[in-house]
Task: structure prediction
Amino acid sequence: MSPPVAVESAPVMDGIPSIEQYAAKQSTTFTKFDPKRHLAYTPPLKILKMGDLALPPTALSSVASTEPFPLLSYEALLEHRREIFQPEVLDNCLHHTRPGSVQIRGHAPRYAPFIHAFWNSPEVLKIISDNAGIELVPCMDYETCHVNVQLGPGGVEAARATPLEPPAATEEAIAQFEEEKPKERAVTDQTKPVVEWHRDSHPFVCVVMLSDARHMIGGETELRCGDERTLKVKAPQMGAACILQGRYIEHTAAPVDNMPERITIVTSFRPKDPTLLDETTNMNIRNKSHLTELYYQWTTYRLDVLAARAQIAADELRKRYEENVKNTDNGKKGLCRVETVNVAEVEKWANEQIEYIQKTMYEMRPLEVRGNRVW
Result:
């Protein structure tokens, strides 16, 4: 990957300050999310089903992945880049994940109020849910949204100098792109992946490209099918998104060979309905998070789900009791002789919640070192 250079880029929106100016003013003001200004949504032309990957549908959805579709306006893209690459964010939220890339996470809402408002807005949540085939909400603030940055020869220090505007391709990069375009690229080179083959910690993710991808060589997401084939989903263009049921599909990210940068953001989602299957984990994130904050958010989210499940179960019993009393004792409560509580049902429900609590605790087990990695 070539080092960052001064190149022609997309025009700056009038009145948008530099990263430095924005950082100076952020303590007192920030750009308010406006769906009319900040969304450029067009539905995806195609949605891949799990069956297309020779995989069974999950308990949540039959959707595997969307093709990339426009989502962020150019102004929204600049707001994301501006909030992400502030010095405070880089000082506090940047984690060294692997030799060729870093991850920035945990910046919203403290340092990134616009990003937090964007991904929690009803307009964006409807877009994500409609395309995923299930109503979704962000897993936690910590997952709104993390940033994958492919490093060039300048390493982390060059990443700290990331410009507000995405740099466009050089003439050399465009020529290289045109030469490579007719060729069929092999399975992603695992000696230098942006992210190795993995499954996500969360049921669904939405990946958005924050770099100029018009002439990128590489940058695709590659999916492993149930019959061991692999399928590449083309890299989104700048401001475009791809939704993936990443908890249940093994995938990797191809590196970019010819551009100054490859920056993507990933927001993770779980089912809004607390009664649905929730197999969210911390498996890929504990080693790149501030655990004091992560475990607080993780525990409260899990307790909220348990509380909602308990309330639903109690409401169902009250409704059943009211019907029993009405049908057998003229509505007189206090001595109902018809079975309201099916003990076997309650035992099954209780065992499911016990398993959920045990999983909650397991995901906060002590970190361990394996080889040169922390897990």
User: Anything to note?
Assistant: The mean pLDDT is 87. Residues 64 and 260 are 31 Å apart (CA to CA). DSSP finds ten helices and 16 strands in the chain. The radius of gyration is 23 Å.
